[in-house]
Amino acid sequence: MTRVAEETDPMELSEEPITGGRPARQVPVRAKYVIVGSGFAGLCMAIRLKQAGRDDFVILEKGDDVGGTWRENTYPGAACDIQSHLYSFSFELNPKWSRMFARQPEILDYLRHCVREYRLEKHLYFGVRFDGGEWDEAAKEWRVKIGARNSESGAHTEIRASYVVLGMGPLHRPLLPNVPGVGDFDGPAWHSAEWRHDVDLAGKRVAVIGTGASAIQFLPRVARQAASVVLFQRTPAWIMPKRDRHISGVTKALYRNVPGFQRAHRTLIYLTAESRAMGFVNPKLMKAAEGVANAHRKRQIRDPDLARRLKPDYTMGCKRVLISNDFYPALARDHVTLVDQGIREVRKNAVIAADGTEHEADAIIYGTGFHVTDAFDTIDMRGPAGRSLKQDWADGMAAYYGMTVAGFPNMFILVGPNTGLGHNSIIFMIEAQAEYLMKLLALADERRATTVAPTARAQSRFNAGLQRALTTQVWSAGGCQSWYLDENGRNTTIWPGFTWRYWLRTRKPNAGAYEFGR
Question: Does this model's pTM top 0.90?
Answer without folding.
Answer: yes
